[in-house]
Fold this protein.
Amino acid sequence: MPQTDKQICIPPELPELLKQFTKAAIRTQPPDLIQWAADYFGAMCRGEIPSVRERSEPVPSSNWAELTPELLKILHARVGGRLIVHVEELAQMWKVLSLPTELFNSVMNVGRFTEEIEWLKFLALACSSLGVGAEEMHQGQTISKTLQIACEVLSCDHDSGPARIPFSTFQFLYTYIAEVDGEISASHVSRMLNYIEQEVIGPDGLIKVVDFTQNPRVRLE
């Protein structure tokens, strides 16, 4: 095919048009996005105001996505390695993924977070909430299961190998989750961490899920 030096011209109004469309779609949460998009742009062509859900209107619960480890991985990637995230930014990330507002508020309340959120603490509580309703979140997963999910979300191995994280990260998460749980003594946590560090962790400083789920001498609860 003959080559051409003709440059592609992007209409100057396109970025703002797409921005407003995206915001409207996120706010409305349509069950059929393609049909809603057709109606949205059809209304604009006719000079009408597109049908967009007002902020005060509740989004039907059937349109909320269920929190999963995969969605937590997406959130973690968007946080981009930061230790602290502002609440408004994190709430927007949560909303874009269509995750339940009630669950976000529940994590915020359990963690007693304010404007500046320690991401790993928020992530730990979010892992604890998987499969648990917002009203039952104070019960949560077992500590071992929560740490397993967190390990899989944070794993530094992106291939088919076992999920692994730095021991220092595991130590931080376990200490925090045990503190929130309130039923595990600090001395027990310290003993378990000392044993894992001295007897389980290899020279790479990484801990695998099996190191704390299948070792009979490691009792995190």
Notes: The two ends are 67 Å apart (CA to CA). Residues 55-59, 134-138 have pLDDT under 50 and may be disordered. The first strand starts at residue 84 and ends at 86.
